Every structure is written in C-alpha cells, then in structure tokens.
C-alpha cells in the first residue's frame, strides 16, 4: 500500500511539472504569435502613414492588439510601452476619452515607469487641446512639473501652463511684449 501511495504521489508531482512546462511553452508561443501580429500591423500602418493615407482600420486593429497583449501579459517588459501606444493610437483616432482611460490605466499600473513623464504630458495635452478641460490639463501639467522638474520638457510644460486658455493672438502679443522689454 505504501508503494502505491508513493507511486501516486510521484506521478502527481511529475504530471504537475509537465503541465507547468507545457503551460509555459504555450504562453511563449502565444506571445511570439501576438508579437508577430503586432509587428506586421505596425509595419502596414506605418507604410500607409508614409503614403499620407493612414489606414484607420489598421490603426484600430493595432490598438486592439497592443491592448490585448498588455492586458494578457501585464508583467511583460513590453506591456507598458504597448499600453502607452494603445493610448496614442486612440487619441490619433480621435477617441480622446478612450485614450485618456488608457493613459490613466498606465499611471495605475506603471506609475514609476520611464514613460510616466510622457504619459503625464499627453494627459495634459489631450485635456487641453482635445477635451477642452483646462482644469484637468493644468492638474496633469502641474503634476508633471512637480514630479519631473528637470525633465527636458519641463520648460515647455511651464509655458503651456502660462498659456492655458489664451488665444494664439494673446500668446503672440505676450511674446512681443516680453521681447520689447528685453
């Protein structure tokens, strides 16, 4: 009886290890397949963009594939970049609320990622220029300056805050006044 129990226990361990290895192999195959699809869609979309006729169908398909990958494999090193690209594509397709949703999701999942400054900047820019919510734009621009005061875009973000809500004429007049004072 002891031999039977030992045999069954060994068999269970063996089967568990094999299932785990099989699962890992299937996951790696799935990742490779998804990445190949993303690469192909990205190539096709970029070619259409270079021709001056961005293919919105390809962009939407690429968006879905970026999002699917980042959701299925959130711990993968490519997922933060893919989630940011998902947001950028949504914004380029004029799906601004959707783009903001993906940017905010990025901030929740990858707050300390090197792309965070660009995410904050894109949030501010989208709220300012596409959603006409100057309060939220200022919030994200200010958060950018507070968190990344030495970033290469910090001076630009500071100017964007100063010019929030101003017409192009007001901005030009202000620049001319500053130049004449100097």
C-alpha termini separation: 97 Å
Total count of helical runs of at least 4 residues: 8
> What Rg, in angstroms, do the CA atoms define?
24 Å
Q: Describe the biggest sheet?
A: none
Query: Which residues form runs of ≥5 with pLDDT under 50?
Result: none
DSSP strand (E) fraction? Answer: under 5%
Shape: elongated
Q: Give helix and strand order, one letter per element, not per position.
A: HHHHHHHH
pLDDT average, as an integer?
Answer: 89
Count of extended strands: 0
Main structural class: mainly alpha
Assign a percent range to the helix content: over 70%
Describe this structure in words.
This protein has 182 residues and is mainly alpha-helical. Among the domains are: 67 residues, no CATH class; 59 residues, no CATH class. The protein is built from eight helices and no strands. Helix 1 runs antiparallel to helix 2, helix 3 packs antiparallel against helix 4 and helix 6 packs antiparallel against helix 7. The longest helix has 49 residues. The chain is elongated.
Please give a handful of descriptors for the protein shown.
182 residues; mainly alpha; 8 helices; 0% strand
Topology:
Layout: H1 2-50, H2 56-72, H3 79-92, H4 96-109, H5 116-129, H6 134-147, H7 154-162, H8 168-181
Helix pairs in contact: 1-2, 2-3, 3-4, 4-5, 5-6, 6-7
Please summarize what this structure is.
The radius of gyration is 24 Å and the shape is elongated. The protein is an all-alpha fold.
